[in-house]
Write a structure and sequence with these properties.
- The structure is a single chain.
- Helix content is 68%, strand content 6%.
- The protein has 15 helices and 4 strands.
- The protein has a 4-stranded mixed sheet, sandwiched between helices.
- It is elongated and about 95 Å long.
Length: 372
């Protein structure tokens, strides 16, 4: 125990002297929480739309005015021909084209059905489906306005059935609220998984690790001294993240802070032991970085951070269920957005504890093996 405290004191002094490292930690935390949530979003603020208006009546002008007043739309141009509007899409000036037929106003006046043609750039399928839902909602609202005028009363009063959706846990359907807990997962993965590996390999390169190896310090004591400082750092980062997400994004923590801190600690243990394993098989900093990048890509992409695990094919689900990020990502969203309690997250927490036990043993054994 005395040896561990001595080594921890040494590690903390080294971290304190490394101003660049501490600056990167602080800058990365601020950048992830303040910039990324605005950049990583599926919300479309200004749907750039080109309109080909072949109608000279008043109803088409009313529809265009309604779109111009809507914050989701930005009318890029009113084109005289369909070909000119297609040029807007090909030059990425517009995302969609709406073609209003010649008989649009006449058909509405006479009570006939009329059609609107909409073409959307669907290179990004998710963005195209969101854009289509915006256009569909606005055109439906325009149709209800016309019907209400014709009947002389609010059309919503005539409907015998009305659906009033109640969105739970993210009432505004804000994509940032969905991603903010995931970004905290990314940071904790980086701090506990990458930095211990880099620091241990760096000691190999400068020779201090070989000096420690000839002392009576036990391997488990040495490993704990290298990873405990990062467990403490992740707790500070977690606290700052909760404050920043509330102050700058208005997202409060719905569940227990202590439960989230405990879950973060277990996940930090898992990732730091993985960092130790990587350092055990890396002789240079370059080798360690290649291995870290390889695993991080897999962990981040197949863990449910960006796409739901249920939507993945069977082979990807197998990888996801063997990935500790999958369980911590579910835990942090459950606590942060749903306010889940200990019993709710217990199955996933036990799986993380299992990961910590197995990976911890592998980390110690592989380190010992390298020594022999």
């Amino acid at each position: 125990m005395k040896g561990l405290l001595f080594l921890l004191h040494k590690e903390l002094i080294q971290l304190k002297r490394n101003a660049v490292f501490l600056g990167i930690l602080l800058f990365f935390t601020l950048m992830v929480l303040l910039i990324f949530p605005y950049a990583i979003t599926y919300d479309i603020k200004d749907l750039h739309l080109s309109i080909v208006n072949n109608d000279s009546g008043g109803y088409s002008q009313r529809l265009i005015s309604k779109m111009e007043r809507n914050n989701n739309f930005k009318i890029t141009d009113l084109r005289a021909s369909f070909g000119d509007a297609m040029d807007d899409i090909e030059s990425q000036k517009s995302l969609a084209i709406m073609v209003i037929p010649e008989t649009f106003s006449k058909d509405i006046t006479t009570g006939k059905n009329t059609d609107l043609q909409v073409m959307i750039n669907s290179i990004d399928g998710i963005q195209a489906s969101i854009a289509m839902s915006y256009i569909d909602e606005l055109v439906s609202s325009f149709g209800e306005d016309l019907l209400s005028e014709r009947l002389g009363r609010d059309i919503s009063m005539l409907s015998p059935l009305e659906i009033k959706p109640m969105y739970k846990y993210n009432e505004t359907l804000n994509y940032r609220f969905f991603m903010l807990p995931a970004l905290i997962v990314v940071m904790i993965t980086m701090y506990c998984g990458i930095f211990p590996a880099i620091m241990i390999v760096q000691e190999k390169e400068i020779g201090t690790l070989q000096q420690i190896n000839v002392t009576p310090v036990h391997r488990s004591t040495f490993i704990l001294s290298k990873i405990i400082p990062y467990w403490l750092i992740t707790q500070v980062v977690l606290l700052l993240s909760i404050l920043f997400t509330y102050i700058f994004h208005g997202l409060p923590l719905a569940g227990s802070y202590l439960l989230l801190a405990f879950s973060t600690f277990i996940f930090g243990v898992v990732m730091s032991f993985m960092g130790v394993i990587i350092s055990n098989y890396s002789e240079t900093l370059q080798q360690a970085m290649f291995i870290v990048i390889f695993f991080l890509l897999i962990f981040f992409l197949i863990s449910g951070l960006f796409t739901p695990v249920n939507a993945m094919p069977s082979w990807a689900k197998v990888i996801a269920y063997a990935n500790p990020l999958t369980y911590f990502n579910q835990i942090i969203r459950m606590i942060y957005l749903k306010g889940s309690n200990f019993l709710d997250i217990l199955p996933k927490l036990l799986i993380l504890c299992g990961f910590a036990f197995v990976i911890g043993i592998i980390a110690v054994l592989t380190h010992k093996k390298r020594e022999s």
